[in-house]
Design brief:
This protein has 82 residues and is mainly alpha-helical. It is 62% helix and 0% strand. α1 crosses α2, α1 packs across α3 and α2 packs across α3.
Length: 82
């Protein structure tokens, strides 16, 4: 499940990392029908970076984790994802 060792918050994200995160972010915003500059989208972005820093770097695994979180915590909060 984890592709890399856990990163520190100060470790750089490389262009390929950012491409992966952006692709997953865009797909999740489309799937959940949320605007990219909304509070919900910002929460998704934060969660993606957090997951990535813990070593989850595959797009498919990131999507699964964000979907699970959306269906659990965020959707229960009225889709605000604050």
């Amino acid at each position: 499940m984890l592709d890399r060792p856990i990163r520190t918050n100060t470790e750089a994200l490389y262009p390929n990392d950012l491409n992966t995160l952006r692709a997953v972010f865009d797909a999740m915003c489309d799937e959940f029908s949320i605007l990219p500059d909304s509070a919900a989208a910002h929460s998704i972005a934060r969660e993606l970076v957090r997951l990535f820093q813990t070593g989850m770097t595959e797009a498919a695994m990131l999507m699964i984790a964000v979907r699970a979180r959306w269906q659990g915590d965020w959707k229960m909060e009225g889709s605000s994802a604050a």
